Amino acid sequence: MSATLHRLLVTLAVAVSALTLAPVAGADNWLPHSTDATWTYEWTDSVYNTTPTKEKVTVKEQKGDQFTLAWTTLEQGNDPAAPVSLGLIAFQETASGLVNTDWSSNPPPSTFPILCAAPTQCNNSLASTFYQLIWGTRAPVLAAPLLTGTQWSTTGGAQGDVSSASDYVGVASVTVPAFPNPVKASKVRTEITQAGALGDPYGSGVRTVWWVYGVGPVKIVFEHAGSGSPITTSVLTSTNQVPAPQPPDIHWFPLEKGATTTYRWTNSKHMKKPSVQEFTTEEVVNGTGRIAAKHISGPIRVAGVYGFTTRADGVTNLWATTKSATVSPLPPLGPSTLPKNRRRNFATPFDLMVFGFNPLIPAYPVAGSSWSVKVPSRDFSVFGVTGTTTVVGVRPVRVPAGTFKALVVRSKLNQKGFPFGSGTRTVWLEPTRGLVKLVFEHGDGSVSTIDRLK
Question: How many C-beta neighbours within 10 Å does residue 100 have?
Fold first, then answer.
């Protein structure tokens, strides 16, 4: 081992403690990590590193949804003037996306801007491809699922002094040396701000990353703020990973702050006069939204709040709280294992939609996919419902709000001892409007119908 290499290895510095997050099965394959996976990147900076620098990245360790990558510029045919970089970077696949849990490397070149408040003991660097990738966006680096309209905000840097706001832009074709023929990539744009560091203009700017499913990031362009307007560019030059088809990015249950929807709900036997209710999305943060319901007209006077989140395992209802009074009482619901004052009631259209078990839909629903309630589980404890939900496919549907192409999802539900909580529920979801229609054929022979009015 050379003296230079020995010194570089000795100066590796761990910059942050590992985060602890719950694992998620079947996480997105945006950064594969089989033991034999390799990538080689070449990066330059228009001001601070004009000499193309190649880095080879390999998988050092993997355990379940956690894995560590290693990179090196040694023995990559680089010009002697190119910066030397050796490092490790750890990730975890979680329900919220790909999270960076740790990193370590030799110090950045002394000619680069200092990305800390003091020049000594500074564990921040942008002098490598994966440092460019995680800068300001550690939890998550990439949100999951990656759907139309996905936005997230997070922080980064050794002291958490780097903030960012990311937007999924959409699918675009990209050409890099590793893929001379255009491949489809998911494009993410991030506005990054660092404050308080000696070189914080360089730590601020706009970064765009092109992600190829089954491969990882294939191109990064970081347009820095500050004097000279530096631009850092990294491209994938070779890899043994093969692009996979990009997952569908349609968001069938969008959460948009300020969105307002009005529904009409009737039941053929128990509530022939319509209950008209308005739903407003009051807040959305990193894929989790709060939706409020209020009475407009009809026999049910109700106020309610619902929480939904979109994660790698799909759209999940987190909570539901309602207060209601009605002149058209509906049949009781179970389960019998709960006291009557703890059982759910149907008071709003959303109550019928979320009844039974999560998820409402998987992250990437395709026709024929199905899932069943788990016993025991939180959902079974709350609802006492068994059954299976199946994605039927995309079908046209007409409601007072218009005619739409909607995703049809059908559930077979059984709440033992409670016919009104049993039956077949069919839900229609539209990408820009969410729920547009619901029909619940109850076990007591009645039918609840919900239509979007506007």
Answer: 24
